[in-house]
Amino acid sequence: MVKITIDGKQYEVENNLTIIQAAKQNGIHIPHFCWHPHLSVSGNCRVCLVEVEKMPKLVIACSTQVAEGMVVNTNSERVVQARNAVLEFILINHPLDCPICDEAGECKLQDYAYKYSVGQSRFDFEKVRKPKRVELGPNVMLDTERCIMCSRCIRFCDEVAKKPQLTFTQRGDHVELTTFPGEQLDNPYSMNVIELCPVGALTSRDFRFKARVWDMSSTDTVCVGCARGCNMKMWVRNNEVLRLTPRNNPAVNDYWMCDYGRLNTFKHVNAANRIKAPMVRKDGRLVEVGWDEAIAKVGFELKNFKKNEIAALGSAYSTNEDNYLLTKLMNHLGVKRIDFVPHIRKGEQDDLLIREDKTPNSVGAREVGVRPESAEFGFASILNEIKAGNIKALYVIDDDIAADPVIADALLKLDFLVVHASNENETIKFADVVLASSTYAEKYGTFTNFQGRVQRNKPAISTLEHDRILDGMALSRLDKFGAPNDRWTTGLKRDTRASWRILNSIAAVMGAKWKYNSCEDVFNEIASTISSFKGLSFLKIGTGGAMLNKNKETVTVKS
Amino acid sequence: MTNDKSQMTNYMENQKPIVHRKDLHWWEMFYIPQIIGGMKITLTQVFRPKFTRQYPEEKWNPPPSFRGRPVLVEQNGVERCVACGLCSRVCPSLAIDVQASETELSKERYPVKFEINMLRCIFCGFCEEVCPEEAIVMSKEFELTFTHQADGIFGKDKLLIPVEKLKDRLEFLRKMR
Ligand code: SF4
Ligand code: SF4
Ligand code: SF4
Ligand code: SF4
Asked: What is the count of structural domains for chain A?
């Protein structure tokens, strides 16, 4: 530990830190473009210049190590002048096309120019022109003119993604970012360079021109693309998910997420094939009915079967709460056959984030009781028993099990199939009752990732069940100030319900006396009955998650 | 402290005393001469030249400084607007809705949808002031009547006006800059 003084205040910090790290730890922001906490130090942008007493020149805070008794000044007259000069330099060839730039509103250069520069340029010559609208890879668009040559993107590819694909060519004001000959920016993590890029040089091709950042709300939630459960923000405008961006969590995903998760875990939420209301099969066709009718139908039909003729499939795509209540309902009915279908793609895994288990909650589903007591009740045996005609009714939540043709064949044998589904899929083709369930973007809940970390997800899309304002969901400017008849509030509000709530209603018609008013009630019960969840609460999980207890005895869920 | 107090007393002293109006003279209370005076004014006006405008038959051409309904400037057959959304952001009455999309033109962005809710617009001109492209300007049009709420939402079809027709305002804006 060394004692240093920053802006007149003394701090004690570890001696292997740089000035910028020490300042950051103590809540002092030193402006920077090229420095990033998780990348190597490059020191090329020069905007982090600070004054250190007894040093003749200003030094860059990102590469100067702290030393005992160091006196740092981040705001002295010299620093302010130098910073302004650096910004003036950077802006010499910047095209200033903020009106057409997707970064506007979350651009470091905009922010710093606004805060630290005098807002004037003495340069009145023609700016250097470079290529615009360059498709750098399948997901990333480059505007070479906007690039300020900070090299963050290059370092990310080299150091984090471990796929050197980007480089600079030329010199001086003709420097251009480009891919190596014959290469594209197509590594599985390529889109992280979009947030890394401090300006709008690298933007998302998927999100391109969809919305202004200040018109969207953002909700802290987690990705459901694989068992990692990367922390992320979900950006919504007019009740439609428009993009996902990673959220820093050092215990799970640092600052990153993979392109697959970013692009493929939200489109089904907006999709046209969403199931808008519960459906019951009448004369061979699925027809939309009210919730009461659908729930009464399920209750009525299930009573016709003996308990060993029923089986249930939970889902690793669903939350802990959904799976817990499915277990509890089956216990109430005396049904022993319960399991879920794993979705593991062998080998599709790497050392950074991506896991071969493509569901977010296998650990959680198992922990809360969606697991057979022995192999004879497991999924393989359920399938065989269905084929043999011994299991006549099946209850499936939130999983398109019939996407696998072998399972689809077996489903034909059933007398009664209930499916919770958010989108039209293969499984509903066999269903007798389809219950319109909410996606993860529309409900509260918790997932347990492969490390055993319990993480919360929150609704970002409002449904008839969750009102944006009354339920404290994230609001955009338009949500706050628009009237209900404004055209930006006309986004679809679907009549879907979280699976745990549907199960709660079904339990009620089947004679169970449960009292859950919110998802949190269900979670609190999990925390009090399942030892690995002991001591956890929504508050404790917070936005960063909390680990399951390690030394646990397994407890079976009572009805 | 003392200063505050002295200010307070000053303030009290500066209060004007309640005014008692003088009672009317008996001649003034006898109101017939006053009525005759008033009639005289009215009668002289009847024989003076009229200056009332025969609106709506006779139209008024407002000066360039006039802020009529905001319109989009159309140049060479396309809107100047790049759908940056700044007008929508600055509009104090949330009247503007812009949806951007990509175009092959060098401006890269254009508005696929641009709507102004004329029932919300308060004719403040902020949109015109903030626009980086001089693409939205206040026109001379002020006659806006609707028979249905939805008619108050003007889309690109009603908003786009060729640049030639907006010369007055554009020149005025350049002068005032
Ligand atoms: S593209 Fe962005 S991240 Fe890459 S060097 Fe240029 S400014 Fe930096
Ligand atoms: S690694 Fe997994 S959890 Fe993370 S973003 Fe990708 S799919 Fe989502
Ligand atoms: S004139 Fe004012 S109120 Fe009307 S659209 Fe423009 S900014 Fe909005
Ligand atoms: S401010 Fe101008 S360029 Fe931007 S969206 Fe409005 S009209 Fe278009």
From this structure: 3
